[in-house]
C-alpha cells in the first residue's frame, strides 16, 4: 500500500476549501474514514471507538474495485478548519487504525457558507 503524507493531505484539503470560499470561522464536522477487511475487526474497532467517546457512523459494507467485500465506518469530530488541529486528530486516527488492524482512509468535510 502506498504511504500517504497525511500532513500534506490535510494542508491540501484545508487550502482548497478556503480557496473555494468556505467559511474559515465556521466549525466543521470532520469525518475520519476507516476500512476493515472483515466485520469482526470493524466491530471491535467500533466498540473501542465508542469507549474512546467518539461519535461513530453506522457500519457499511462496500465492494472494492477487485470485488472484495470491505467494512467501513467513520469517526466524526467537530473543530475549526485548522491544519494543526485536524492533523493532530489524523495522527490519533492513524495510530488507532494501526492498533485495530484497519486502514485509515483519510478524512473529509463539507463546504461551509
* Distance between the amino and carboxyl termini: 36 Å
Estimated structural class: alpha+beta
Largest sheet: 5 strands, antiparallel
Mean pLDDT: 95
**How large, in whole angstroms, is the Cα Rg?**
15 Å
Shape: globular
Annotation field: number of helices: 3
CATH fold-level label: Alpha-Beta Plaits
Number of strands: 5
Number of domains: 1
Q: What is the name of the CATH architecture? A: 2-Layer Sandwich
Protein model, in words:
The protein has 113 residues and is α+β, with helices and mostly antiparallel strands. The chain has a single domain (7-13, 27-107), classed as 2-Layer Sandwich (Alpha-Beta Plaits), CATH 3.30.70.970. It is 40% helix and 30% strand. The chain contains three helices and five strands. The chain has helices at 6-19, 39-51, 83-100; strands at residues 27-36, 55-56, 60-63, 69-80, 103-108. Strands 1, 2, 3, 4 and 5 form a five-stranded antiparallel β-sheet that branches. A hairpin with a 5-residue loop joins strand 3 (60-63) and strand 4. Helix 1 (6-19) crosses helix 3 (83-100). The termini are far apart. The mean pLDDT is 95. This is Ribonuclease E inhibitor RraB. Residues 8-109 form the Regulator of ribonuclease activity B domain.
Amino acid at each position: 500500500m502506498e504511504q500517504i503524507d497525511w500532513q500534506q493531505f490535510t494542508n491540501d484539503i484545508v487550502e482548497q476549501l478556503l480557496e473555494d470560499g468556505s467559511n474559515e470561522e465556521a466549525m466543521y464536522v470532520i469525518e475520519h474514514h476507516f476500512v476493515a477487511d472483515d466485520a469482526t475487526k470493524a466491530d471491535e474497532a467500533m466498540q473501542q471507538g465508542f469507549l474512546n467517546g467518539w461519535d461513530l457512523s453506522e457500519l457499511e459494507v462496500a465492494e472494492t474495485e477487485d470485488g472484495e467485500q470491505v467494512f467501513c465506518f467513520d469517526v466524526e469530530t467537530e473543530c475549526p478548519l485548522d491544519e494543526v488541529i485536524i492533523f493532530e486528530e489524523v495522527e490519533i486516527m492513524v495510530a488507532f487504525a494501526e492498533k485495530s488492524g484497519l486502514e485509515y482512509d483519510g478524512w473529509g468535510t463539507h463546504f461551509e457558507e
